[in-house]
Amino acid sequence: MTFSPPINSIQYLLRHAVDFRALQACPTHADLSDELASDILAGASAFASDVLAPINRAGDEYGATLKDGVVTTAPGFKEAYKAYTEAGWQGLSAPEEFGGMELPMVMSVAVSEMLYGANMAFGLAPMLTGSAMNAIFAHAADELKNLYLPKMVSGEWSGGMNLTEPQAGSDLGVLRTKATPNSDGSYALSGQKIFITWGDHDCTDNIVHLVLARLPDAPAGSRGISLFLAPKFLLDEDGYPGAANGITAIGLEHKLGIHASPTCVMEFAGAKAWLVGPENKGLACMFTMMNEARLFVGVQGVGIGERAFQAALAYAGERVQGRVAGAEPGAPISGHADVRRMLMDMKAGIMGARAINLACAYALDMSEAAPDEAARKAAHARQALLTPIAKAYGSDMGVAVTSTGVQVHGGMGFIEETGAAQHYRDARIAPIYEGTNGIQALDLVGRKLRRDGGAAMSALIADIDVILVDAKSVHGSDGLDLGCNIRHLEAGIAAMKSATDMVVAMDDIDSHAAAVPYLELCGHVISGALLITSVVSGLKAKDPHAPAMQKLVWYHSLKYLAQAPAHLEQIKYAAAPVFAYPEDRLADL
């Protein structure tokens, strides 16, 4: 099945939904010209459509296999991975000192969306490698950085994240993997990890595992967790992979989707490892890795949603069924109002979630690149606030859109040969891993909202207020009608302000019950505001894509932004209706 990455949509949002010019003006990214950015996106598009998309179906059908402790990837994956690394894609945003291009995160997000849309199972390997590199760069000793980062940046070695255990899923405080000190300053890891994405494979010469484990006499709970680096193969005196390191894949999970991504049960039998960061601070160090991964899971939702949309659009443009009102006999089902409605639901939802992902990445970039310290601090707060929203809103949108894609295909959508079912199956993991979307909502209302009394959210709402003023300033000029967008953005802002005040004042149980509807409300308003500002900016710049975007944003305001006030009642009553129903009646009235 063909896939054409949505370059026009991505570039339009870079120009008009986020301030790409401001990023280019930062000294760190002064060399990032429009031409370079365009060339990078064009190259990624070609790689995604020509190399990754053609092996997506085979990857789903064949999956990865495990024999004698060795994982073999699906047909074509090893060759595709080699092509990926030889083209230098792994080092896109990596530090120059270790061989990377050090481009901003918005570029990495844009490129990654194309990869996930073409082949989500493949895209997980470079995602985890990139996140592992960040944790090593931020917390590891220089010796470890110099040994491992150059090979990871080049893609010659991959990286993995080893957190979960059979008894320790989201609650990592109860993990049992042990780290025993060796006489040479290293540690011996013993234990078992489950659900390890790309935990073993045949695409690289080595795999650099980051592992959470407990030191002897470590404090109980999450305060006693440390982070370790353990390579699949120990390095010889010249820095090349040598002896095996007691790390073995002893099982492969049989999953609903992403079959070509090997999800492993990993056994550590005295594996030699080195401490990353301070003792008993492993969870904080791992969050360096997880926070970026969470953003990219939101990007996965958009990528696979885009793939499902393209498949639905192509099918609807060919399938003839029933008489299309006002059309000649034989017209395809894309002319049916209900089918067109579903296609618009898909396209508008994807575009809104895409805008949030890029805004989150832009905030991360400005938190590092802005020349003013106050601007860096404000951008850091914005990035922290948007990360759980990007992850949850993007991945939920991916599930909704791929489900609608099955519906557009009708009965054929329930048949594997069309590929629509695979998109839905692949998308379903994204709201679960890297912290379930319920956990993202709790993070939003707990760490990101209530901890600072709503200050970061108030700053975001103030920026959305400015977007509303700008929309009003152009409404009516040259016949431009933004009335629908303005009405729904006004209502959305009011709902967001009221909901924020409510949640900040709630106790824990009520804020926990209100967390998911609050996140959904914020997602609708933020995505709507970003799309509206992109229309205003695009029209002012006379961008040729702006008129079409205005029509899409009109639909988005009616479908998604208009939903925001509806969440207020659920937020207002919070825990009361959640727990009012008798627990002993849940099974049956």
What's this, in brief?
Helix 8 (282-316) crosses helix 10.
- What's the mean pLDDT score? 96
Give the low-pLDDT segments: none
Regarding quaternary structure, what we see is single chain
Strand content: 5-15%
Q: What structural class is derived from the secondary structure elements?
A: alpha+beta
How far apart lie the N and C ends? 47 Å
Question: How many helices does DSSP assign?
Answer: 18
Q: Largest beta sheet, briefly?
A: 7 strands, mixed
Radius of gyration: 24 Å
| Residue share in helix | 55-70%
Order of H and E elements: HHHHEEHHHEEEEEEEEEHHHHHHHHHHH
> Shape, please?
globular
| Count of individual beta strands | 11
How are the secondary structure elements laid out?
Blueprint: H1 7-16, H2 20-25, H3 34-52, H4 56-62, E1 65-67, E2 70-72, H5 77-86, H6 105-139, H7 142-154, E3 157-162, E4 178-181, E5 187-197, E6 206-213, E7 226-231, E8 233-235, E9 241-244, E10 247-252, E11 263-276, H8 282-316, H9 337-369, H10 373-409, H11 420-427, H12 437-450, H13 455-474, H14 483-505, H15 508-540, H16 546-559, H17 567-573, H18 575-580
Parallel strand pairs: 3-6
Antiparallel strand pairs: 1-2, 4-5, 5-11, 6-7, 7-11, 8-9, 10-11
